[in-house]
Design goal:
This protein has helices at 2-21, 36-52, 64-76, 92-101, 131-149, 167-182, 200-213, 227-239, 256-262, 278-295, 315-321, and strands at 25-30, 55-60, 81-85, 105-109, 126-129, 156-162, 190-194, 219-223, 247-253, 270-275, 302-305, 308-311. By secondary structure, it is α/β, with parallel strands linked by helices. The strands form two sheets. The protein has a six-stranded parallel beta sheet, sandwiched between helices. Helix 6 (167-182) links the parallel strand 6 and strand 7. Helix 3 (64-76) runs parallel beside helix 4 (92-101). It starts with a helix and ends with a helix. Bound molecules: alpha-D-fucopyranose. Residues 35, 37, 85, 110-111, 129, 168, 198, 225-226, 252-253 line the site of alpha-D-fucopyranose (FCA).
């Protein structure tokens, strides 16, 4: 009898006990879950969840509809906030509204959300890369190698794989263009190849068209917003017989896409990448949202991270330095 009473008491107490023990949930929503960069961000966000003791809910949001459903889903799961890299930065107002409606804290990562007029949404804290500066590093890396190879600046075609609807993508690629122009590359040598999406296949298609239209250049340098964009250009060039002795590309990222190229036995035209930090972007944003929701600690409005040029030669050393 006594045992029964104890059991009944325990059962009564259970819902409360469960509630108290239920871990805090933080969402991490990314536009391209299959991309190695986002896989890395998720991995480091998981690390933060483990260290701080919250549960991470990872959802891929390839389009606006899936994004809205994911936010509703987080609310239904009683999450307290989320980090987001949206499939289109112009969805900013919708994200903000949904978050407010559900009383969820929201912070953007990589791609800063904008309003209808294209202005960043001030009340959504953001962590991104310093796109223009990193783009300049890409341009300078290419210039150093152009010089090392003894190429003449006016004979080199410059392929900018462009995704100008995304401000950080434009900043990155224009940083590279400006560095090349400042060193004396003629404006007429700069060829834009607009890609429809930010993956390798779209970059490949865009680069192919650009190479066909500009067959007069026998030597090329190429870049885009990420490693996938640079890689698409490299593969398109290879398809036309332009190999690493006549072409070089520098990406931005430094995740598996770049590492796969570096570990190929024969060097490809994927010369290097500016390594950025998925550790900072994943770990710090997830932690910031957690601390904001549970301790009221407001994250800084904007945090911009830096990068470092990495090539086949120094990749192991540089990655180690960056804690990867
Ligand atoms: C954007 C790009 C990604 C990655 C990230 C830091 O979201 O699409 O590939 O470069 O910024």
């Amino acid at each position: 009898m006594q045992r029964r009473a104890a059991l009944a008491l325990a059962l009564l107490a259970t819902p409360f006990a469960l509630q108290a023990a239920e871990p805090v949930k933080i969402g991490f929503l990314v536009k391209q879950a299959e991309e190695p960069w986002f896989q890395d961000e998720w991995r480091f966000a998981e690390q933060a969840a483990k260290d701080k003791g919250f549960t991470l809910v990872k959802i891929g949001i390839p389009n606006g509809e899936k994004m809205m459903a994911a936010i509703d889903n987080l609310a239904a799961q009683k999450a307290v906030g989320f980090v987001i890299c949206a499939p289109d930065v112009k969805l900013g107002v919708a994200v903000n509204r949904a978050a407010k409606r559900h009383k969820l804290k929201v912070m953007s990562v990589d791609d800063q959300l904008v309003d209808g007029a294209g202005k960043p949404i001030a009340d959504i804290p953001h962590m991104g890369i310093s796109g223009y500066e990193i783009g300049k590093q890409v341009g300078q890396g290419l210039l150093a190698e152009i010089k090392a190879r003894g190429w003449k600046l006016d004979e080199v075609g410059v392929l900018r794989v462009a995704f100008d609807q995304l401000p950080t993508a434009r900043d990155r690629t224009m940083g590279a263009v400006d560095a090349l122009k400042a060193a004396g590359v003629p404006v007429a040598n700069i060829v834009d190849a607009p890609q429809a999406k930010t993956d390798t296949e779209s970059a490949f298609n865009a680069a192919n068209i650009a190479f066909t239209k500009n067959a007069k250049f026998k030597r090329w340098v190429a870049f885009g917003l990420n490693d996938e964009a640079a890689l698409g250009a490299v593969r398109a060039a290879e398809g036309r017989g332009i190999k690493q002795d006549a072409m070089m590309a520098i990406g931005i990222g430094g995740s598996q896409t770049a590492l796969n190229e570096f570990t190929k036995p024969t060097p490809t035209a994927f010369y290097g990448t500016v390594l950025i930090s998925p550790k900072r972007h994943g770990y710090e944003t997830a932690t910031a949202v957690y601390e904001w929701a549970t301790q009221g600690k407001q994250p800084p409005a904007v945090t911009l991270t830096s990068g470092i040029l990495m090539t086949r030669q120094n990749q192991a050393e540089i990655r180690k330095q960056m804690g990867l």
